[in-house]
Design goal:
135 residues; mainly beta; Metal Binding Protein, Guanine Nucleotide Exchange Factor, Chain A; 3-stranded antiparallel sheet; 10 strands; 40% strand
């Protein structure tokens, strides 16, 4: 089933301390990617990429700090209180948002189907993610 064929639910999530909270619209069965690039491997980041219009910060804009590295294109937002990066704007999907699936409140999640993503060879593989932020 394609993502746009599934019924979208509102999922909530945020950082560890609760200072940052957000909502996304996504199916009950989440299709995620666990990346092995230098930053994702350290944090065991489990990507759920959605179009920007299906993501909204509902609390804590003032608690967010921004981190960039390398090309500077990806915008990594983290809570300045607890340090958790619960979402970011990925370089592969600048018109989308990647939320850390482990930061989604579990009540609305039916299942998670995870695929590995070879981020160590990002330039070769990034195109395979581009469709995830399309509406």
């Amino acid at each position: 089933m394609k993502d746009d064929d599934a019924t979208l639910l509102t999922h909530t999530g945020g950082c560890h301390c609760g200072a940052v909270r957000w909502e996304i619209e996504a199916p009950a069965v989440l299709k995620t990617h666990t990346c092995n690039c230098s930053i994702c491997n350290l944090t065991h980041y489990q990507h759920l990429i959605v179009p920007k219009h299906r993501f909204r910060v509902v609390k804590g804009d003032d608690h967010l700090n921004l981190y960039t590295f390398g090309s500077g294109i990806a915008q990594h937002y983290f809570c300045k209180t607890c340090g958790v990066k619960s979402f970011y704007i990925p370089r592969s999907n600048p018109n989308g948002v990647s939320v850390h699936a482990r930061c989604i409140d579990p009540a609305t999640v039916q299942a998670v189907e995870d695929e590995p993503f070879d981020g160590q060879n990002w330039e070769k593989n990034a195109g395979s993610l581009a469709h995830l932020s399309e509406t």
